[in-house]
Amino acid sequence: MPLVxxxxxxxxxxxxxxxCFRKASMRPQDIKYSNLPLGVxxxxxxIIFMLVIAGLVKLTASQISIMTALAARYLFxxxxxxxxxxxxxxxxxxxxxxxxxxxxxxxVGLLGLSFYFAALDHISLAKVxxxxxxxxxxxxxxxxxxxxxxxxxxxxxxxxxxxxxTVILIEPGASDWNALGVAYAVLAxxxxxxxxxxxxxxxQYESPVTSAIWYNGAGAIIFVSYQLIFDLPLPQTSxxxxxxxxxxxxxxxxxxxxxxxxxFAPASMLASLRYLSIPVGMGAGVxxxxxxxxxxxxGGSAIVIVASIFIVxxxxxxxxx
Length: 321
Fold this sequence. Notes:
Order of helices and strands: HHHHHHHHHHHH
Number of helices: 12
Distance between the termini: 27 Å
Number of strands: 0
Radius of gyration: 19 Å
Largest sheet: none
Shape: globular
């Protein structure tokens, strides 16, 4: 279940920016980036923030319901996004050019994050993180049908190899096999891929910050309403309450780092760096949650990483199908 920012432009989740459409004819290698070390540092910070969010959800899963965690994540993520929106667009930040595609983006985004939080409640942090990195494979698989993009035999082959790696890393039949948790993680990745595809479409005419505000605002309304209607228990300690507030704030920082990184470094480089979340997630799982990492999991993850990086290379570096 990815804003400091360029005035008037914010990067999209697939690595493009509103200004990139004005430079659509430029090859990636022709675009100059002002500060690669800063871009890489921001990308690494985004990975850390993303794993902190996952860790906070997992840490409180036994005391706080997933619906309450979702309500807090969306509600406390809004203030910073609103500040950015008003800074860039004023009251126009709420103006949606095409409400219907935006509504679809909101729906798949809410489903994706809901399944992601649910997966963290059932299976290891490392496994959820690794499965989540198969999003590149799902985007490649779905793009010909939803975006009419041409996918060549090399990327199709890489997809098949990547999905084979996914089967290996989820370790079906293992003693700790949790079919429901794996299903949640796969569904989270599929809906996350649909978000990326929708952002590719609406990004041509919709401000990314407007999309983010509507998405998080809708999430806050839906999950806070659910919390109130069903009278779900609130955190009993100030520590748990602080964790929920922190969940939303870290989500804001994660989006800021993601967007800012694309100002200073090329998307192809940043996409490759995101796969560092798998070994970092493994380390976090072992250190903080006593998770067991097997050789089969490591091998399957390596296959997914190599296949996904190859797809990114074909698509972004040399522009080939």
